[in-house]
Amino acid sequence: MIIMKNNKVDQHSIENYPPLMSVEEEKAAVRELEMGNPDIRNFLVERTLRIVFFIARKYAGAKADFDDLMSVGSIGLIKASNHFDVSKKIKFATFASQCIRNEMLMYLRRAYRQKEVSLEATIGGGETVGRQLKEVLTVGDEEILERLERQEFAQDVREIIKEMPAREQEIVRNRFGLSGLEAKTQKQVAYILGVTQSCVSKVERKIVDKIKKSMEPNVKIYEKK
Fold this sequence. Notes:
Domain RNA polymerase sigma-70 region: 44-113, 161-213
Helix content: 55-70%
Family: Belongs to the sigma-70 factor family.
CATH topology of the largest domain: Four Helix Bundle (Hemerythrin (Met), subunit A)
Number of strands: 2
Strand order of the largest sheet: 1-2
Number of domains: 2
GO biological process, one term: DNA-templated transcription initiation
Order of helices and strands: EEHHHHHHHHHHH
CATH class of the largest domain: Mainly Alpha
Strand content: under 5%
CATH architecture of the largest domain: Up-down Bundle
Largest sheet: 2 strands, antiparallel
Protein name: RNA polymerase sporulation specific sigma factor SigE
InterPro entries: RNA_pol_sigma-70_dom, RNA_pol_sigma70, RNA_pol_sigma70_r2, RNA_pol_sigma70_r4, RNA_pol_sigma_r2, RNA_pol_sigma_r3/r4-like, Sigma-70_Factor, WH-like_DNA-bd_sf
Radius of gyration: 20 Å
């Protein structure tokens, strides 16, 4: 049953979104992707919209409109469908959840910087009830490193390394797969470039710290009047 509100589909009702894929359906869809069927991506998006709904409900409330979060999350879902790599052997739902969440958090960070939301505002549903926005906007080193390895910050890293010595630039390009290179482990980079693994680790630390600093909300709390 489609739930209507003021003659419009009510996005706040989970019943208006198709059910999530079963394990068998997702496996079949992935096989279609492996065979090069681009149309299956539309199916993946449609049958993953409920995840957008669940995550939007978690983050709504920090003066952030639920419908806006649904729109932003849907963009993340579409990006996930376009960049999903079957060879990584990760479930589409898992990959999509990361992309959806990242897109919503970037939206909330922009909203804060534009003074549209307060870091002290309480948010969401489920396990986020009663938490403040600043708690969910805090990004850990491990998450940043994982996202660097997925090349989510590729453009940011290219800008950062412009100010670094040539040798360190080469380490970063090899470590995170920039300039057409394949991403490598610290140990592999050290061996190829003839440096110590400790050296590679220090350069990696610089990148993580700079990315983290660029993502952290200002310490000063803004409260919209």
